From TrEMBL:
Organismal lineage: Archaea, Methanobacteriati, Methanobacteriota, Stenosarchaea group, Methanomicrobia
Domain of life: Archaea
The organism of origin for this protein: Methanolobus sediminis
InterPro entries: RmlC-like_jellyroll, RmlC_Cupin_sf
Entry protein name: Cupin domain-containing protein
Length: 134
């Protein structure tokens, strides 16, 4: 989701799953601000956020009906859903549905983790970017 504000800033939001000190997982929404920049001259200015660290990528594809029972994330990673429909559930009982274009940052790399379900009729595919811990 992207919103344009009156102060010439664009905001990009994404979902995040994190772990608390008891090992339970929860959802949060993160907002990243962008500013108008001449980032790729001679192209016209466009909105750009600050850089974040990333060095590799991968793809995850889940078969129809696939369920990833309660598990921590294998690494801190951004998931961008490319196709299909997914439902994620945290240990506090919150369930969110994600569709193509949705972005999730998984930070629950220990503790109880979360549940992921492919709720679509076919395969779902994620573009995955592992990111270093902060």
């Amino acid at each position: 989701m992207t919103e344009t504000s009156s102060s010439n800033l664009t905001q990009v939001t994404y979902h995040r799953i994190y772990m608390d000190s008891q090992g339970d997982s929860h959802f949060d929404v993160v907002t990243v601000k962008q500013s108008l920049s001449q980032a790729a001259p001679p192209a016209a200015p466009f909105y750009v956020s600050e850089d974040g660290p990333a060095t590799k990528y991968r793809f995850y594809t889940f078969d129809s009906g696939w369920i990833g029972e309660l598990h921590p994330a294998p690494t801190r990673q951004f998931l961008i859903l490319m196709s299909g429909a997914v439902e994620m559930e945290t240990t506090d009982g919150t369930v969110r549905r994600f569709m193509p274009g949705d972005l999730v940052l998984l930070e629950d790399t220990s503790g109880k983790g979360h549940v992921t379900r492919n709720i679509g009729d076919g395969f779902c595919t994620y573009f995955v970017v592992p990111v270093p811990s902060v």
